[in-house]
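re: that complex we talked abt at group meeting.

here r the seqs, copy pasted straight from the sheet so there may be weird spacing, ignore it
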Amino acid sequence: METAITLNHFLFVSGVLFAIGLAGVLVRRNLIIIFMCLELMLAAANLTLVAFSRFNLKDGQPDYEGHVLLFFIITVAAAEVAVGLAIIVALFRSKGTTDVTKVDTMKY
Amino acid sequence: MPVYFLEIIVVALGIIMLLVDAFVKLEDKRSIAWLGMMGLVVTFGLLFRVQWPESTESPFWDFYTTGDQMALYFKGIAILTTLGVLIMASDYSRIVVDQTAPPEKGAHPQSGLGEFFALPMFACAGLMLMSSANHLVSIFVALETVTIAFYVMVAYLRRNVGSLEAGVKYLILGALSTGFLVYGFAWLYGMTGSMQLDEITTALSGDNVNVAGSLFAFALILVALAFKVGGAPFHFWIPDVYQGAPTPITAFLSVGSKAAGFIVLLRLVDPFLSSGELVGKVILAVTVIAVITLIVGNLSALPQKNFKRLLAYSSVAHAGFLLMALACTPTTSQAGEFLSPAKVIAFYLGAYLLMTLLAFLVMTAVRVKMAGEELSSYRGLAKRSPFLAFAMIISMASLAGIPLTAGFFGKFFVFQLAVQQQQWFLLTVGLVGAGAGFYYYLKIAASMFLSEEDPKGDHSAIPVSSLSRIAMIVLIVLILIGGVNPSIIMGLLP
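got the structure back, here u go
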């Protein structure tokens, strides 16, 4: 029996990816893992974009506008990681930890 | 001169400042900031000589609005904010030098200062592009240009744990909101088949709209932008980041990033408001966020002892008033009869720019001298430095919304909108919030004038550089003029 993969399958997978990323950001304590989970959320958005782009046909062709945004997201995410890791390294040098529960000198 | 030259000029100015920092031997690196200020003043002048294109056939105009007075107004806000930030940054430079890594042998004693002046220029270019962005791609790129520049600026004081901590918190929560934003953009694109905002409006106001999918996209985008502008319950990063960041950068965050967040919010909410099926739910969602923001912002500000934290909650409260204006959008059939929320928000942000910059200019002067940002540092300020105390009084009066200041008319127009739309509940919450505001703003005034200064401390006058003195005088005059005759600012709007 042959079953075609439809738009809904892609949306389901990307929704799950987004949820995993969000849960990771909220639950995990290590900054590096949190950062990876944030990248996972961006990957979910990218998958959604590509899926919509493939299934929203314009004149029988996929609509490539989604791909354009995807490439911008990848580029921006790379810049964000470069800056983000630098900040995390600076924090590690001054506090000796990347545990978010230890970064709590300012409250209320 | 074509309008997009403005952004190009500002970016070029930033690059020139970096090159000067790297290749020109300077006695005092603050001259880089002066170079930037002069460039920004020229750019601000060029705002009034913009020419709109005759033909908009080029695909470029899909990404960039044209014939848009509102965008020019917001570009003006971005430029003036950056100018103020550079003035503060050059006063603040001693602290920046002290708290970044010690220079290597033979290096310039102020090494690392040049970037601190150049980064705001790039953020400014991002803010300016954001006010003209008309396409999901250009909105995204502009927003991220600003956000990434801010990550660096917030964490700039590498030897200060507070600044690094603020940087990490801003990084994680900023990236989280970016995640929500792009996921929302992906769904919005999926539901409408387009990324150009005009085409999205057409698609959403058509007949076969996927209501569930479009609302999901709207919810994600609203969460992301509530993060950016500081709408509760997504405001929890604001107090920590404002407290930890270098003072000039806090000012930039609270004025520039809020103004830009609101223009993006206005542009992105607009297509949803044109859709008959979505408009009710969209307004309800914005109303809920506005109510929570007004309550949380005003009540949390009451017990604060740190001045920057107090201003952080006050900025949350102001975001509440701005969201309140957005929640009072008239339905399309009434449009034209009433004040438009976009105009009210733009006026409010203009007034907010003046009064917040003034408060931060005073705060920078006090911080450099006193090494503290607690409210106790301001005790007896009226005796030590009457001029600073006077400037602070004007700023606090305007933030609280006392008549004869620009802040009064900002709040007045918002309440007027609420009355027109008969949003009585929202109006009540807003009035209670404004009332609470009087308490915590005037608490500062009381501590400056009524309490005795610390007997052990230093009683000498606080030095103010002539540049920031001029800036303060200009801001005080503008606040008072705006409070007597708001039509001067209103006249700049379409």
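couple things i noticed - The mean pLDDT of chain B is 90. The longest helix of chain B spans residues 161-192.
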